[in-house]
Every structure is written in C-alpha cells, then in structure tokens.
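Before surveying the methods themselves, we first show a specimen of the format, giving the amino acid sequence and backbone structure tokens:

:::
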Amino acid sequence: MFYQCQKCKRVWQHPIQKCPYCFLEVKPLRSNKIKVIGISKVGIPTFLHPKVPYFVLLLEDEKGNRWVQKSKREYKIGEQLKYEPRPDKKAVSIWRVKYDVLEAIEKVIELLGGIRIDQNSKILIVPTLVSPVHPHFAENTSPEVLEAVIKFLLQRGAKPENIKIGAQSFTEIPIEVSAQKSRLLEVCFRYKVVPLDLSKTKFILKKLNGFGFEISEEVFNHDFVINLPTLNLDLKLGVRGATENLTRLLKKESYFSLKYLYSEEKILENISSILPESLLNIADGISVQKTNKIAAFLGLIFGSFDPLNLDRVFAEVCMRKNLPEYLKKVRIDDILVVGREIEEVQYDIETS
C-alpha cells in the first residue's frame, strides 16, 4: 500500500500521517492490479532465508508504484500477481507487516472472505492480557494491533459504543492493572470503546465430550467475536496463541477445576468446538516471545476461523519441534494457507 498527499500528489510507501510539504493528511492508495516487471533468482542461503532457490520480484501497480517482494514461485515478466480470497473456515491467512499494521489486518481478513459489519453490529474483541508489563515484552497483545483492529471495524461502519474489549485475570493481579500497564486501556479510551471485565459477566454451561465449560454469556450476545491473541512459543504447549487465549472466555473457577481433572492439552483440544463458528482469530505475530521469554521480531499477522489450525501454522513457521499431541493431530498438509506461503517466511526463530 502507498500513501499520497491530495494536494502535491507526492507518494510514500510508509504510512506518514501528514505530508511534510503541505502539512495535510495523506490518503492510502490501494493496488488493484500488480504485475511482475523484474525477477532475480537467489541461490545462496542466508541466516534469515535458508531455503533456496527463491525469487525476488520487482512489482508495479496500475499507478506506477514499484516495490520488491520475495516469492518461492517463479513468475514471468508481465505476469499478474494475485492473492485470491478463500472463504474456507479451516484456512489460515498470513500477511507480513511491512510498515502498516492496519493493512496487514485488512489483508488477512480479506483473504478469508471478509466479514460483514454495519452500524448495528455488536463486536467483542478478546486480546491476550495476562500480566502487567510494557508492550515491548510481547506478553500481551500489542496496543498497535488492537488499535488497527478497532480502526478496521470503525472504517466499515461499526459504532464505538457497540465494540467491547473483553479480558479477565486468572491471577491475583486485577485485570485493570494489566490493561493500564500494557497500554490497551489507553487504546480503549482513545477510541471510546468499552473495556469489559469478563469475570463480572454471567456464565452459561456448555457440555461437550464429558467437558463442562462455563463460557461468558457475552460470547453469544455479540454478532462477532474477534479473538486477538499474541503468539508466543512455549516448551509445554508448543505455542501459546489463539486456542490458549480462548480459555479467557471461561469462568476462572471452572477453568482451574478443569485443569485439576484434565490436562491443559485436552482442554485446548476441545474448547473451540463449543464456540460460535463465526469466531474470527486474528493473531499478533509481529514480536514473538521465545521459550526463554526474550522477544524476537517475526513481523507477521495470522488470521483464521479455526484457532487450532492457526496455532499449527504458526508452529510450522517457527519450525517448532516435538509438538504436543493436540497439535500433532492437526496435519499441516491438510491446512489451506493463503496469502504468504509458509516457505516464504520460515526461519528458526529460536536461534535468531
């Protein structure tokens, strides 16, 4: 995506807020037709790009804007570059964040077939909010990603008063403390959306395969639920991401009772089956916490209606070995990946 000043017509590839020459807000320029005008084949592996050969494409849109992009597929000069939406509930979309988080959010949702929102739509967003730490630790969903999702919803007609940001604390630390320290509360105030402590809501019992899940009633009182986890690596679970974040929708006492009776892996394997199929997972994979708790830059946004598939693709991207049984059951070859292919972004994040 490019950005243009409406007065002087200068164009930038990064999202500056105002033109430095005219001091006016810039407008996004969307590329509808993209063609390949140059190709370089790379045969020497590097630390961040170990799989060769790959191709570096010089691309041009219908407005004459140019940029480069990596691809594992070889294109021909003049060929059109297209990313077709695939409205498959099991698909996983991937997009790289180059400069603009909002653009990546738009792309991962568009590639999944999009969602229909109007001014009456009631939307619940569930970010990862587990500890009172600053955003650079990558422990919670970043405020930039939450802000981009809210902007996306508002641009498509949603009203701020119909958007709620739901979270709850599973520790002794009040959720308000974590919300303030992580700067997520600041985002809520800026866009006048409603922060919601899920522990203070009503819960309803849903039974499946011998499990009794007490789920917040708010999940079923909204037209859309957006699960907005941050993606992290974990020695026990393989990854802590979309599926693990769904446990924040459970009643705290119920969740710890289930953990006493069953393994955490069994809970994660079953929890998504009792939630609405319209639940959309948009995962923050820009900065990823490694197993040693040190954050590394990955620069990706993931999207899917299936949280287990999303977590499995993320594990594949990060080249995780020795996955737990609940993720091993999800065959990577059976998952449709749209947008950026796994081979294009894959490197061992644990050694980076």
